[in-house]
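Lab manual, section 2.4: Encoding a predicted structure.

Procedure: take the sequence of the chain (481 residues), apply the prediction step described in section 2.3, and record the output as structure tokens. A sample record is shown.
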Amino acid sequence: MSFRRARRDDQDPGANPPAGRMARSGRLAAVPLSYAGRRMAGAGKRALGRPADEVDRAIQLRTAEHMAEVLGELKGCAAKLGQILAIYELALPPDLAEPYRIALSRLQDAVPPMLPRSVHGVLAESFGPRWRDDFRAFDDRRAASASIGQVHRATWHDGRTVAVKVMYPGARAAIDADLRQLRGLAWLTPVFAPYLDSRAFVDELAECVRAELDFEAEAHSQRRFAAAYADDPDFRVPQVVAQRGDVIVSEWLDGIPLSRLIDSGAQAERDRVGLLAARFFWSSAPRSGLLYSDPHPGNFRVLPDGRLGVVDFGACPPWPPERFPALLRDLVSALLTGDPGELDITARRHGFVDAQRDFDSEALVAKLLPVSELLRHDVFRLDMRWLRGLTRSVVDPDLNNVYRQLDVPAYLTPFQRGLATLVGTIAQLDTTGPLRDEILRWTPDLAAVIARYRQRTGQPTDLNAVRARRAATTATGFAAG
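Recorded output:
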């Protein structure tokens, strides 16, 4: 895609991501400026007698909507950033976070659509000027959207119903502009994580994002997953029908999107699907050799036969790296024992803390207690309350927050992204079930660690006892306060 073409598309409102650096930076900069203007206007409304809570909520709602609109229009990295921000809003109190959650969630399915002429242009460039000969029918209406493209329903020339994923014209130039801007802001990371290797982290993030622009590689990954999960009783991965240029044609999946299940599904079905999502993520590397690192609700469908349909394989790196199994084994062992000394050794051995630097391992043991609880019990409830508490603990801006003392090896970026997204999906489903077993089934080294832990401690505590202990602890804390 030439720069000239990208610039021309930038002038077509709502069609494609603006690729010009100044245009994209200007739209992002408009968010805080508009917020400041609303704050000034709100002060006037409060002076005229409007309730302060009502004014503040209106400001928050409009700012959240504006943020989602701008990120959605920019697509590319900006839309991906919006998906990440939808996780970090969990650190806010529920009443404050609600408007941000509502607005940012629209980025999954409400990105402004490409105009038909833009879609046809990409198809012509990829399949040739007679691209319609490959289809019996093609629906110009968008069926779904992604951060770098959108999906159309069509009928292939052999009669199969297919999903046609088309990349936004100018997406590469737009993402390059985003990544340049991200690198320019990397100097800010020490404010939040003083010991993070920001250059390595940004480079790894850039590699993850750029991988999604390679539709040939995505089609190859999807074929590997389709072969690995062929005839599976729990999952269906659609076969790739064709891939050329910036277009992927795959089998169409009819099913219920997880967003509907999250909103109104029966709890038993939510539990079942949450466990299936966990199973697919943890089984992806052992079965395919690739990590499925984008397990957000928009990439899953509950099929009529009860299986979980999985789409979008644009971010699937080879996995695991050589160092990862030992890290996972050592970390889980340290979490289960709750021994600060063992956790200190593990953190230093695997590059989370420099050997010469002080490190409050006792504070980290306390911070990781929610994670260790999940690993200790046969049945666990992973819900938004649990995730909100964990997220607040991680992003707490207090200078004494032990997470600020850590570096995170850059090679873990794809796994971190995938695990955080998976946990968010499971929590939105309010999943209760044997989540630990879904992990151990595909990680035999961890299963051995858990077996040794159970031998030392006897029978694990059941879920009802855990809830009772939490309630008693909370009540005691309130009484003491």
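Check your result against the sample. Residues 116-167+185-255 form a domain with the Phosphorylase Kinase; domain 1 fold (CATH 3.30.200.20).
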